[in-house]
Design a protein that fits this description.
Blueprint (H helix, E strand, L loop, with lengths): L11 E2 L2 E2 L1 E12 L2 E7 L3 E2 L1 E2 L2 H10 L7 E9 L22 E5 L3 E5 L5 E2 L5 E8 L10 E11 L9 E13 L4 E9 L1
Antiparallel strand pairs: 1-2, 3-4, 3-5, 3-14, 6-13, 7-8, 7-12, 9-10, 9-11, 11-14, 12-13
């Protein structure tokens, strides 16, 4: 069609690319008290093809959308990833083996110093707790992947637009472990 703007790479907006980082905190009960036993530190993650679609739909007030980031999904991935972790692909639309999802605990704006603020900023922090009694499967599960879903996402596996995909080394989750997952986006 004549007069339409040229296509732009969907993962870039102007000259700035959306960036994502994530980290896990792992807790166990030690001497009768909840204790932080691991902090995996901040690592880059992959914004996938669903993010630009999600942002476009939100800006258009898409009537089929229930909102922005609605579900944080956890997946088993594949056991072969324990020796050869794959690289997530931009065109991914779902997890490899999703088994659990829940809404994030909170989504906060962050100021330029990374401190939560009530003011609207270009950075958000998503926090999801996988509590001691959650995401354990029958007798514990290995989590190797996670993703954030929005738009038309519900509690059903693979529903909605996958906006973010993370593959990582296996983390065993049973009733003795609580994991708090943090994902930050900088727009």
């Amino acid at each position: 069609m004549k007069g339409l703007p040229p296509q732009v790479a969907t993962e870039k907006f102007g000259t700035k690319q959306i960036q994502g980082i994530w980290r896990d905190e792992v807790y166990k009960i030690v001497n009768g008290k909840e204790a932080l036993v691991e902090d995996h530190g901040w690592v880059k993650n992959l914004i996938v093809v669903g993010m630009p679609k999600l942002l476009a739909g939100l800006m258009r007030n898409e009537p089929t959308f229930a909102g922005g980031i609605l579900q944080h999904a956890q997946g088993r991935g594949l056991p072969s990833w324990d020796t050869n972790l794959p690289v997530p692909q931009f065109n991914s639309v779902q997890l490899t083996d999703e088994y659990f999802r829940k809404p994030p605990d909170s989504i906060s704006y962050l100021d330029s110093m990374g401190v939560p603020t009530v003011a609207i900023t270009n950075s958000i922090l998503i926090r999801t707790t996988l509590d001691f009694g959650e995401a354990n499967g029958v007798s514990g599960e290995f989590i190797r992947e996670q993703g954030l879903y929005g738009g038309t996402a519900t509690g059903a596996a693979n529903s909605g637009l996958l906006a973010n995909l993370i593959f990582h080394r296996a983390r065993f989750k049973d009733a003795s472990v609580k994991i708090i997952r943090f994902i930050q986006f900088i727009f």
